[in-house]
Amino acid sequence: xxxxxxxxxxxxxxxxxxxxxxxxxxxxxxxxxxxxxxxxxxxxxxxxxxxxxxxxxxxxxxxxxxxxxxxxxxxxxxxxxxxxxxxxxxxxxxxxxxxxxxxxxxxxxxxxxxxxxxxxxxxxxxxxxxxxxxxxxxxxxxxxxxxxxxxxxxxxxxxxxxxxxxxxxxxxxxxxxxxxxxxxxxxxxxxxxxxxxxxxxxxxxxxxxxxxxxxxxxxxxxxxxxxxxxxxxxxxxxxxxxxxxxxxxxxxxxxxxxxxxxxxxxxxxxxxxxxxxxxxxxxxxxxxxxxxxxxxxxxxxxxxxxxxx
Length: 309
Hints:
This protein has twelve helices and nine strands. The protein is an alpha/beta fold. It has two domains: 10-73; 102-304, 3-Layer(aba) Sandwich (Rossmann fold), CATH 3.40.50.150. α6 (105-124) runs parallel beside α7.
């Protein structure tokens, strides 16, 4: 990182780095510069502007320069800082896990909407006080960093969760995040290939999953910072993106209690075929498609059919 001057204030280094990133084709150049500088200095982004005329000492400048070099090479900001915000919660992330995306918050919102049904039922059954029913058991498949299961466990204190993932390294990150956010006692993490480590009994009131769904052709066109740094196994879903969703949809019904819900995050254009696969199981009496904040059909949810009478 060549320098046109010997010393820098916060504002000067921000301006210069933003232009440097822009010239090198780095995505979100201003935001990248702000987040990395705040991380290097151990302050918030707001503090940067409250201290804009503060000079950087040599150690601070060296830390920041090292981050800038790695960012220019394509390394995502979240991996450089080790943090990513999701559902207003700071999650620790490492290259072992997919970086949580804002659109995945749609999965959390969609699950909370249907959870109102059993919340109201529990209140009617004496949900307050010493006679309160046991916590509802819920499941996430493909937990990654744990962002979704932790957000839901915090929002739904009357639930207990099982979170499964094939990656042991990802599960270690998820466990750490669960401890950080005070839900470790209500989330049990388990290594599993989809549902293979669980007994097929109708135990779960909610089953949520954000499985790899990126089609091969789309993968080839993704930015370098995704293809070269994020774990391919957490993204790639085969030729049409449904290689894992198909078997999961077939396997899921026996694990969900009557009236329970299955919620799946999908890519743009996948909601109709995924809904059709779920309908073909004849296990559900309601199928719904939920759009994210960009208008993309992002979540398919289905309610487990209840026995007649």
